[in-house]
Amino acid sequence: MRAQPKASHFINGRFVEDKAGKPLDVIYPATGEIIAKLFGATPALIDQAVQAAAAAQPAWAALKPVERGRILRRAADILRARNAEIAELETLDTGKAIQETLVADPASAADALEFYGGIIAGFNGEMIELGGSYAYTRREALGVCVGIGAWNYPIQGAGWKSAPALAAGNAMIFKPSENTPLSALALAEVYKEAGLPDGLFNVLQGFGDVGSQLVDHPLVAKVSLTGSVPTGKRVLAQAGSHMKHATMELGGKSPLIIFDDADVENAVGGALLGNFYSTGQVCSNGTRVFVQSGIKDQFLDRLTTRTKAIRLGDPLDPEIHLGPLVNASQRDKVVSYIEKGKAEGATLHFGGGVPQMQGFEGGCFVEPTIFTNVTDDMVIAREEIFGPVMAVLDFKDEEEVVARANDTEFGLSAGVFTKDLSRAHRVISQLKAGTCWINTYNLAPVEMPFGGFKQSGVGRENGLAALYHYSQIKSVYVETGKVDSPY
Ligand code: NAD
């Protein structure tokens, strides 16, 4: 098995195996080959990991922030030095093209480690004047935090969650998606090599039941989940029943609005990035592409030409743009949405097929697919597909498109392409979405807060915002005069 790790779990600085857990086979989605055999965590291991984290956390929180930051920055350097090897692991685990994982996966996790490692020493409370007396606030760690990952950006998710958590003085137990369990273990090795004390970053494998037991554990203070809206609702309710902190990064059906005056090549580039990157498995994808009538023909012409040039195939080949979907059930789900689109009367403008490729007969491939003449009420315009399926919708004016763009239960992202910057800002200010772009799409630098409005989530990852979500304020009133008591 070509990607078998030393063991399934990483607890208190060591790899740990326990074959009593639920078997979890790791499948390379390009071929169907089993590349590793792991086991989900048992209740005993869950408790062991949480106890280890709880024991290690107070000494870590007591370090000077600059000392915590130094370890994170060292980990960023080690992660970058191992980029090629971890990118390949990520491609085997997810099926995403190596040309993406080489630049967007371990690299993005390293950015998070570097950013929070650098910024944490300047993250302080405030001093409040009270007319002689004063108050100050402290930003204190929460304790043991649980990170639960989705399968589309496994090491990025582990980095985006653990870096601010650790920087702020917490310990973390990370449970990767059962579909993509491998790279979080590599991150655990990186942290260990960088000098992170044992117990502060632990990895437990498993399905939703392991995540749920972690959220219930009395020593856990917070959960940060990336996943679908239904899972997010369950986990948020469970965290709420214990009054625990929670961050939810969930799904979307985001609008990408292209006005007549947009630069056509840039708008097409944005639409391609916002629909086909990572084989369409990106939460913030702009899957409802609203195109104003005056630019529609030109836009579709260039979109078609550039989509034809997308090379689908062996994700380990650096020339390939698009790999398979993460597994067969996701492939089947995407295919069923394509069928629904056709049945509802949308025009299948491009793709829609399931390619058969020699040597990859067991792969979960779907062609990049474009539907035109899509209307707002169609299922493919309302539900998150999470695959390479773009819906192109027509619009006439600004007011109309803003109302239609907002007519969704989701609110993760939105984008606008126009050369009229006044219009761009005006439209963005009216869109009900947490992460927006003007004249680009889907860029998520770690410096910029990321997260959703409405059903797309609560809390934020990245930026300074994430540090607020991994810490709690303690207010301290300091009296400098007499205590004025009526009694
Ligand atoms: P999912 O909801 O099926 O699973 C997400 C994670 O939650 C997995 O690790 C799973 O094991 C765990 N889980 C499931 N049930 C649980 C429970 N009851 N308690 C605790 N943990 C539980 O999502 P997925 O299919 O892995 O990922 C795709 C979804 O994630 C899409 O909807 C996508 O939009 C979303 N996503 C959001 C973001 C974001 O930042 N907003 C990023 C990537 C993906």
From TrEMBL:
It comes from Phyllobacterium zundukense. Belongs to the aldehyde dehydrogenase family. Its cofactor is K(+). This is Betaine aldehyde dehydrogenase. K(+) 1 binds at I27, D93. Residues 15-476 form the Aldehyde dehydrogenase domain. K(+) 2 binds at K454, G457. The active site is at K161 (charge relay system), E249 (proton acceptor), E249, C283 (nucleophile), E461 (charge relay system). CDD domains: ALDH_F9_TMBADH (cd07090). NAD(+) binds at G149, A150, W151, K175, P176, S177, E178, G251, C283, E384. Its EC number is 1.2.1.8. It is an enzyme of class 1 (oxidoreductase).
